[in-house]
Design a protein that fits this description.
The protein is of the alpha+beta class and 275 residues long. The chain contains ten helices and 13 strands. It starts with a helix and ends in a 16-residue tail after the last helix.
Length: 275
């Protein structure tokens, strides 16, 4: 049974890697990290906060900002005829800047009551899905393990601070009897190194992100995925109430809907799970 799961996981990752390669090839242009992108309507200008997360958004070897989610924002800006400026930061930093209107919008946000006090949201554009990665030489130790069994063991799970992982994980986080072994890192990319250093037993991450990073020989040779899938929330773009009008968000939603019909965005990372 475990051998079958390993073969199935290998096939799944090969398909994801092929998908990432196709998306990368479709990215015909890149955005300057400093200058942003100019469009015809200079009356429309928005500042987009982004978090380094390959292959969604990152600075390439030529010092240019690129990635699938950057391309989506570019497409939306073009359709709105709106200039988009780009500001990098950690998740927590960008949320704080949204509160005070220092940036206009950021991606990948779940709608919550707390956030709705200072932000408005676009239509949802993707479904969060996560899996647990462990050291490859430890995979057999977790043969057929369930998420409930992990919760009740001394398995130290790495999460990213400020991320929302869905009801299953959030109920775990709020359970004071079970959450002692949850460990947080400010930047999600550091969790793999923490696994290598023996600080955690595994970490929760988007398989699309890890599939891209597994182009690195070290990551590919040292991590394996558990046959578990955790469904998170639906993600939206989050807008500052202090700086962005509802009318602008309406235009953004129309442009978003149109952009998601383009060939390069009609891929699994943007597919929505059924209600």
């Amino acid at each position: 049974m475990m051998r079958f799961l390993k073969i199935k996981s290998m096939i799944s990752f090969q398909l994801i890697l092929l998908l990432v390669s196709v998306v990368t090839a479709l990215q015909a242009s890149e955005l300057s990290v400093i200058q942003g992108e100019s469009y015809k309507n200079t009356d429309c200008e928005l500042t987009f906060g982004w978090i380094s997360r390959k292959p969604l958004q990152f600075v390439g070897d030529n010092n240019q900002l690129q990635g699938l989610q950057i391309e989506l924002v570019k497409s939306i800006g073009n359709k709105m005829q709106c200039k988009i400026n780009f500001v990098e930061g950690s998740w927590q930093e960008l949320v704080e800047r949204i509160k005070f209107g220092e940036i206009d919008f950021m991606p990948g946000a779940t709608i919550t009551k707390a956030r709705s006090k200072f932000a408005n949201f676009s239509e949802a554009y993707r479904q969060d899905v996560f899996v647990i990665y462990v050291a490859k030489d430890k995979l057999d130790d977790y043969h057929d393990i369930t998420l409930e069994e992990i919760k009740k063991s001394n398995f130290k799970l790495g999460l990213t601070q400020g991320f929302l992982y869905g009801d299953e994980i959030e109920s775990w986080q709020s359970n004071n009897q079970l959450n002692h072994y949850l460990s947080y890192e400010e930047e999600n990319e550091k969790n793999a190194q923490r696994l290598f250093d023996g600080e955690i037993d595994g970490f929760l991450e988007d398989p699309y992100v890890i599939a891209y990073n597994q182009r690195s020989a070290e990551l590919k040779s040292r991590v394996s995925v558990l046959p578990l899938k955790v469904f998170g929330h639906r993600s939206s773009f989050m807008f500052s109430k202090k700086s962005v009008s509802l009318k602008t968000i309406e235009k953004f939603n129309l442009a978003l809907s149109q952009a998601l019909q383009l060939r390069q965005f009609k891929i699994s990372w943007f597919e929505m799970a059924p209600d």
